[in-house]
């Protein structure tokens, strides 16, 4: 049965039961490298806001020949982490064998990675292996921006009578270069929240950014959008990590990030109003950045047109083309509730900027 047909509040029970006064925090190294490394990081995180200690045991890599994890040996190190620090443990699973070993070693939280979420066959195999478990299971978004595929994975696990579910937003792959390792596509996460407000959602700023200097800003955006927690890769010596060195932060930096984040609590009507307002403003900020990015791409195309016109000695202004664009945009704008006056002002400004770009190229 589709989870859209049921009350999703039961999925939130595990998070509510924790009674946290801060966002859920899952932190630890991208990869478990050595027992000493795992234990050192755990001991530096044990008296912080971290709720689950994460470490990759099996590491699916994009290309062969890269470090692919220490394997089942690392599960014993996670057992030691729990015994000596009291931290609950978390790791990624990608098949039935991983699940069975993780359960055997009493790992508290399991997540399905982005590469696994794209395959219903893999997700079903994991769901079958986990059927009826009381462990927390989180599903990362698929590498491609496909909301139905993401929710389909959740439904498969829910159908397997796994109640303690949640999702992880880690961004989406794209061919185009950007400042992000994986494009956030925040609107997709917002749509998921709108459909299932009681499905816990965790943000993974490490994989979104691929850059430790951007972790804080993405984390703050996530909290402004009412995300329930963060998964942040943490290493005492990030630059020498065996995988994903650029996106890991030190335990000290993680602690500072958690101190600096503005966490808005919903305690009364005024706070609820403020929280909702901040959420909507955060959505506007995201869209504004997308608008600027799109306009930048448009002007690069204008530059290419300018170079072509210079080569063929063609005038910058082509009135017929401009009038056709304007007419089409007025109609498109009206269909979206935008006034003709606004469309005219906006596209005249865009057109003028395009002319400026082309003239600069033509005039050298």
UniProtKB/TrEMBL annotation:
The segment(s) forming the Chorismate mutase domain are 271-362
Keywords for the protein's UniProt record, in alphabetical order? Coiled coil, Transferase
- Coiled coil, from the record: 263-290
- GO terms of biological process kind: chorismate metabolic process
Query: Molecular function terms in GO for this entry?
Result: chorismate mutase activity; transferase activity
State which Enzyme Commission number(s) the record gives: 5.4.99.5
Concerning InterPro entries, the annotation shows: Aldolase_TIM, Chorismate_II_sf, Class-I_DAHP_synthase, CM_dom_sf, CM_II_prokaryot, DAHP1/KDSA
Tell whether Cell membrane is among the UniProt keywords: no
Principal EC category? isomerase
Transferase keyword on record: yes
Q: What is this protein called?
A: chorismate mutase
Can you name the source organism? Arenibacter certesii
Q: What is the lineage of its organism?
A: Bacteria, Pseudomonadati, Bacteroidota, Flavobacteriia, Flavobacteriales
């Amino acid at each position: 049965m589709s989870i859209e047909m049921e009350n999703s509040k039961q999925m939130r029970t595990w998070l509510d039961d924790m009674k946290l006064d801060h966002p859920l925090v899952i932190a630890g190294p991208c990869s478990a490298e050595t027992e000493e490394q795992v234990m050192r990081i755990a001991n530096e995180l044990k008296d912080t806001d971290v709720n689950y200690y994460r470490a990759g045991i099996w590491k699916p890599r994009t290309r062969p020949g890269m470090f692919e994890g220490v394997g089942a040996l690392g599960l014993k190190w996670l057992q030691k982490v729990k015994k000596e620090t009291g931290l609950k443990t978390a790791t990624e699973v990608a098949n039935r064998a991983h699940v069975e070993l993780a359960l055997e070693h009493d790992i508290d939280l399991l997540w399905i990675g982005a590469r696994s979420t794209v395959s219903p066959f893999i997700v079903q195999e994991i769901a079958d292996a986990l059927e009826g478990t009381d462990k927390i299971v989180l599903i990362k978004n698929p590498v491609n921006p496909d909301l139905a595929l993401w929710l389909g994975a959740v439904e498969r696990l829910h159908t397997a009578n796994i109640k303690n579910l949640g999702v992880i937003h880690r961004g989406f792959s794209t061919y185009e270069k950007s400042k992000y390792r994986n494009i956030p596509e925040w609107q997709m996460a917002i749509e998921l929240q709108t459909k299932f407000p009681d499905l816990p959602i965790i943000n993974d700023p490490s994989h979104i950014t691929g850059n430790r200097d951007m972790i804080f800003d993405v984390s703050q955006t996530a909290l402004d959008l009412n995300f329930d927690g963060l998964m942040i890769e943490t290493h005492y010596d990030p630059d020498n990590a065996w995988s994903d060195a650029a996106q890991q932060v030190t335990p000290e930096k993680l602690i500072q990030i958690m101190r600096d984040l503005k966490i808005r609590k919903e305690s009364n009507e005024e706070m609820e109003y403020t929280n909702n307002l901040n959420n909507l403003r955060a959505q506007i900020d995201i869209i504004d950045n997308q608008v600027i990015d799109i306009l930048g791409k448009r002007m690069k195309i204008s530059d290419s047109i300018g170079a072509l016109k210079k080569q063929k000695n063609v005038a910058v202004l082509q009135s017929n083309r401009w009038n056709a664009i304007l007419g089409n945009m007025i109609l498109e704008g009206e269909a979206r509730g935008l006034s003709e006056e606004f469309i005219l002002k906006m596209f005249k400004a865009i057109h003028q900027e395009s002319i400026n770009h082309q003239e600069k190229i033509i005039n050298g």
